[in-house]
Amino acid sequence: MEEMPKTYDPQATEPEILKKWLDGGYYRRRPGVGDCTVTIPPPNVTGMLHMGHALDDSIQDAIVRQARMAGKSTRWILGTDHAGIATQTKVDKKLKEEGKNRLEMGREKFIDACWDWTHEYGGIIQNQIRRMGCSVDFEGERFTMDPEYAEAVRKVFCDWYHDGLIYRGKRIVNWCPSCTTAISDDEAEYHNEAGHLWHLRYPLTEPVNGQDYIVVATTRPETMLGDTGVAVSPKDPEKAAFVGKTVMLPIVNREIPIFEDWHVDAGFGSGFVKVTPAHDPNDYAMGEAHGLEKINIFDEHAVVVDGYGAFSGMTRDECREAVVAWFEEHGLLDHIEDHEHSVMHCYRCDSTLEPWLSEQWFVAVDKLKGPAIEAVTSGRVRFNADRWKQSYLTWMENLKDWCISRQLWWGHRIPVFYCEDCGWEDALMEDTDVCPKCGGHHVHQDENVLDTWFSSQLWTFATQGWPQRPGELEGHHPTTALVTARDIIALWVARMVMSSEYFLGEEPFRDVVIYPTILAKDGSRMSKSKGNGVDPMALIDKYGADAMRFNLLSLFTNNQDVKFDADIDKKTHEFLGSPRTEQAKAFVTKIWNASRFLLMNMEGYTPGAPRVETPADAWMMSRLAKTVAAVTEGITGYTFGDVARTIQTFFWNEVCDWYVEVTKSRLKDDAARLQAQRNLIFVLDTSLRLMHPLMPFVTEAIWDAMPASWLDVDPETGEARRAEALMVAAWPNPADYAQYVDEKGERAFALACAVVTDVRSTRARYRISPKEALAVSVRAHGGDAAAAIESMGAFICSLANVSDLAVAVEDAAEKPAGSIALAGPDFDAFVVVGDLVDFAAERARIEKAIAKAQKELAGAERTLANEGFIAKAAPEVVAAKRERAAELAADVERLTAQLADLS
RNA sequence: GGGCGUUUGGCUCAGGGGCAGAGCACUUCCUUCACACGGAAGGGGUCGCUGGUUCAAAUCCAGCAACGCCCACCA
After folding, report:
1. How confident is the model over A14-20, as a mean pLDDT?
2. How far in angstroms lies nucleotide B26's C1' from the CA of residue A824?
3. CA/C1' separation A751–B59 (Å)
């Protein structure tokens, strides 16, 4: 046996363990009974992992490691997402720093630059995941732009196109006139800006109630050139008279109708809204509803198109000034007020975005949403909290057709080909430059690429050989669990369900595990711009991967947000420390040290089964059995916060603080030593297995330090059957441990602990040095308690080793001279303190205890006197209350006697 | 505007109709041969507010307040 170093050094040990795992091939997809397949939500290749990923991956690794140990066939698939717009933006930025420009380079070279980027950052992400200890199959790494994946994406597009689920249509997009591309809603940046609300007069074609004009309020007067209607609120009685009338639009002299629409807020502006369907999303919706013409007044550079006289050729800003000037000149400018409103800007060049009508591709969701709703309502797909199910269903029910085209270069190009000669158009699995209809050579492919979510919706099956090798999915789809953040339930989770139901006729995963969002210490969202984010690698550097993982998992409660307590230097944004991760590291150290102690005391050890020989063993084995059950249930039920707490309390407070301490004396006793060693090793071994999925490194390192011949010994042959690594060792089966559950044994031990604690308390109260021995005798109150105390005698004496008690446990009929009495549950303990007794202090203590007991007793008696309680409360609750009241009454009596004794 | 969440000791948070909990911090004691990243003993809370349901409410319901997150919108 190698000597374990005195302190555990994660920085030195973790790489060694990692090497062992990787060399051993343990990460590979493993055969087994039952299945656990998890696909890692693909991080964007745009940079480093953040805290959300670190939590996400810690959860998945815990799930996968437990399943692997439990003998299931595990497959954890790693991959990254090309993240169209996000990556393109990053690459654009990088090129700009190099003095280059996408438009000058051309599409092909730009895509090459994106691939370079992908390879560089994909590698970084892979290394980070490896460092966290995640046992993914690194050899099967996937990328959403791999050739096979691309084929899957193309097939989905073509199938939906031919099945009539994909169509082309006009839609308002956020158009950047300077980059000449559409920007998705998600990537547009909103800024609040001080602007104006211009109140313009539109002349009525015939007077209404003596009025010959109405006033519309607008923040964008230049768009009035494209107005095709005026809307009022249906809830605005004052405007009812105007509905159905028309106004003559100034400048362009177009007669446009006044109508009612729910979009209009009667209380805002003038109550009349000018409607420009081609240049505003709401106006577009109103235009659709009321059959209005959509007039595009801007070209792709946001310059006014021909046909508007002097206004044609003006930019948006010039046009705005000119329009306002025109209205003023003609006496139609009613008034101007200041108005702050939010304006969308291009994330790249910061230009003001123009809502612009353009041709886009859509997925019709009507046929897809039904099965996707059913998958969740039927329970085939489960969420780990009902509220996420609700938000999924709400989103699904309000789902509108999905715009899947993006005016980008980096991504899956839409596989639709057009013939310029004969007008043929089709979606094809193979590129073509010849028209299959007319044989012409003027064929071109659609310039748009697909929304990133269009490709990631296939993640659970396109990563597993679909459509090329359908057999590969066998037994691994539906996947076991999808672990992800709640903000992509709609964007990703829902779409995965839709596509999987459509193409495979089954759900993509059985469980959706939504974990809390990790916020900064002050409760705000971590973001790059605020510089309040924490790099998980900085945490690993400082505390080790196990500490980071354990702390993150302990934060996984059923709350929707959690604050991460990291201190960050406000100026340099440098990571300074995280107290909770530090505590987690202390726990890792504790595990190491306890194990080290046990291994130092194993001289003469030979393998053998555990056996309950002492009350402490009975208690420990019972606690162990319950912990095995709780941890197994917790990991498979995804309640990781509970699991972390259960494990820490068990190992630290029960194993270390009591069991190991109590067992020390048996290690010194030749007759008892071997069985004590066997029991300790059994408890340690089981504990290591239970803790492994959460803290893989330290547990594996300790396992490594234990000789192979110690564990998993075949009772028949005496041969060791130990697995070569803890990560592939057998998971403790709760059924095998159930035999050790012993409620009576647990109560008996708790009783003995109470005696010990009372004695220690006395020592502290009288400031009796630990060096000074104390004589203690105990009087049990009959029955079980007497038996417990009697059997506990040796145990309590054994504590003399650690707490210098000279204990005589006997049926003390008389209170020993010079002693003080301690009342515990079912016993009196007498501690001989001689002339150290401070009568005043002792009296005060007992009086306080009496007061407390009496207060609770009074409450209990009040409850018992309540007829309603007796009649309606559950019988066992009533019985428990009666018992408690009796106990309290006895306590009061005993304490009162003690008080009398003192005087 | 809609949805969701949170409010429990100084701090961070569990719990979830029947005795108010943990860790950290704090106080006292202990460097005894696993661990001071440790051990032992303590102090500290009207469970956000107001009502309701119930024999019984920190817990369930309603309303309110504060904080936060998500989604939508801002003519």
Report:
1. 93
2. 28
3. 30
